[in-house]
Design brief:
By secondary structure, this protein is α/β, with parallel strands linked by helices. It contains 17 helices and 26 strands. The strands form 5 sheets. It has an 8-stranded mixed β-sheet, sandwiched between helices. Helix 4 packs across helix 5.
Length: 559
């Protein structure tokens, strides 16, 4: 056990951080004066839910019940309505025997149904398992069995992906074009559960006054094998919101477009921070770059949250499709994978100083956030650690690496995951810090730079090569739409680099050759970083969150 003096220092440090954390949430308008009657209701909701994601819906409904919560493909809904429908869904599930500790699975795109499930799960004390919309039938079957899911909510389009044998799992459609699919399979729909919920006085539908704090289980990307479940902790204070707001200039009750998939850690984080802000969330089930800009302009959105592949498609739109009024847009926040250097520069040039880049992972939540000013000066930076976050570069012996030296990235904050749901698997830890699995370094200004995954670095002819550096160089070559670089086996050098390139439409792309690619890299980087193979593809294989799936890239020897 640590000595008393160490414990006192730790408690004092936590208290100071909590005090500092009040500054960004006050500036953003989360903490503000309110009517005494609403303050009492808010205190009751706080006691009931703490800072859980579902609790944030209840807080917003008690402070501003008539404020618009959601604008989606089905229309609009206020915070009061979102809270009421979440409560009704919880009562209906309770009457059907769902109790605290059960697991509810959701396989859905971005729409109000996802938010209602977040709210209902908090009221029941259940765990919410967020399934990847890009998972195969086999993966879904394994995850459903491994996670012991009792109820599964899914959008109608994913019914064909379901495994044939669901066992005792009850199914409800969270989004339907018609109710025929539900009726044909003997299922119900989320809307039916809400509309036919038992009365609040019904003994079967009685909800706990202070529910169990359920877990949110996020599935890893699953680029290889069956995705692992990562248990996300529920916020224990306002510090997670304060951390993000210390770097993102967001304000309460503004309009925010959430394009990033909610089932992913980044999308789920954006939902939570915007619920805390009582934002109006604009959601689209299926991403369209043209419609995204149109809706951002129509609703005068102040922020847009997406993944880099979505940003790429927006910036690559024809000029006439980008002629919309984006004057209200102050924040374009991207995360989920690396943003190529060329895309950073084009975004800042065409949209202005609005781009923010969050670096994090399912396991550590966030690590660093880069602001537009930092990206203008250093387009490849991951930025700085936000409030209450520690980032260290450690060598293989656990010692801090000097400035400029590449090492393993370790992170500490209040939202480090609690472990995988699968026994025997965990991330490398160093004290209170957890490895991201990435390699990186700090520059003289204290900015973090990511050099690549620790398992992506290759040794070719005795030289250490980081594929991400080559990808960034290729992103700035005229004619290149996107590129992925990996190491492949080589008899002479052990490993060699292979570049997979998607050409842009037009003359620059059509005229791009293998020699052009190699020459460009040779002019920018060392000789050993020049790809030996260049393979042109129509598109890169990506999963549902936009990450390239290396195992689906073709063998360069067979092209």
């Amino acid at each position: 056990m640590p000595p008393l003096s160490a414990l006192l220092r730790s408690r004092l440090s936590e208290t100071r951080d909590l005090a500092k954390g009040l500054i960004p949430i006050t500036k953003a308008g989360i903490v503000a004066p309110m009517r005494p009657d609403r303050l009492g209701k808010l205190a009751a909701a706080w006691y009931r839910f703490d800072f859980t994601p579902g609790g944030l819906i209840a807080f917003a409904a008690r402070r501003n019940p008539d404020h618009l919560a959601v604008i989606d493909d089905a229309g609009s809904m206020t915070y009061g309505e979102l809270d009421e429908t979440s409560e009704a869904l919880a009562r209906s599930l309770s009457a059907k025997g769902v109790t605290a500790g059960d697991r509810i699975g959701v396989l859905a795109r971005n729409h109000r149904g996802f938010l209602q499930l977040i709210g209902a799960s908090a009221r029941l004390g259940t765990d919410l398992v967020m399934l990847n919309t890009g998972a195969s039938s086999g993966q879904l079957g394994e995850v459903i069995r491994e996670q012991k899911i009792r109820w599964l909510f899914l959008d109608e389009e994913f019914t064909e992906t379901l495994p044939e044998d669901l066992g005792d799992v009850s199914v409800a459609l969270s989004w339907t074009e018609t109710v025929k699919t539900a009726l044909r399979n003997g299922w119900t729909t989320q809307d039916q559960l809400i509309n036919k919920a038992p009365d609040t006085e019904s003994p079967q539908a009685k909800l706990p006054g202070r529910p169990r704090r359920g877990k949110t289980i996020v599935l890893t990307s699953g680029t290889t094998g069956t995705p692992k479940g990562a248990r996300r902790p529920e916020p224990r204070s306002w510090m997670p919101a304060s951390a993000l707001l210390s770097r993102f200039p967001l304000k309460s009750k503004e309009v925010s477009f959430i394009a990033a998939p909610i089932f992913h850690t980044w999308g789920f984080a954006t939902i939570q921070i915007n619920l805390a802000l009582r934002s109006t969330l604009v959601l689209q089930r299926k991403f369209s770059p043209k419609d995204t800009l149109r809706l951002v302009a129509k609703h005068k959105a102040a922020s847009l949250f997406l993944v880099p592949t979505m940003l790429h498609r927006i910036i690559d739109l024809p000029a006439e499709d980008r002629k919309v009024d984006l004057s209200a847009l102050r924040v374009v926040a991207a995360s989920g994978s690396a943003i190529p250097t060329g895309l950073v520069k084009r975004t800042l040039s065409e949209l202005g100083p609005v781009l923010y880049n969050l670096y994090g992972s399912t396991e550590v939540s966030w690590a660093a956030i880069a602001t537009p000013e930092e990206l203008l000066e250093h387009p490849t930076t991951a930025g700085r650690a936000p409030l209450g976050t520690v980032v260290k570069i450690l060598d293989d012996d656990g010692n801090e690496a000097p400035t400029g030296e590449i090492g393993n990235i370790f992170v500490g904050n209040g939202m480090i995951f609690e472990g995988y749901t699968r026994d025997g698997e965990d991330r490398h830890r160093h004290g209170n810090l957890m490895s991201t699995g990435d390699l990186g370094h700090f520059n003289d200004e204290g900015l973090l730079f990511i050099d690549g995954r620790s398992d992506d670095m290759i040794v070719s002819g005795g030289e250490n090569i980081y594929p991400r550096e080559v990808e960034n160089v290729l992103s700035e070559l005229d004619g290149v739409l996107e590129a992925a670089v990996i190491g492949v086996d080589d008899d002479s050098f052990g490993k060699r680099l292979a570049a997979y390139v998607v050409r842009k439409d037009g003359d620059a792309g059509n005229e791009l050759t293998e020699d052009d690619v190699k020459t460009h890299v040779k002019q920018k980087l060392a000789r050993f970083s020049v790809p030996r193979d260049v393979v042109f593809l129509d598109e890169l294989p990506r999963n549902a969150t936009g990450k390239v799936v290396p195992r689906e890239l073709p063998d360069p020897d067979n092209n």
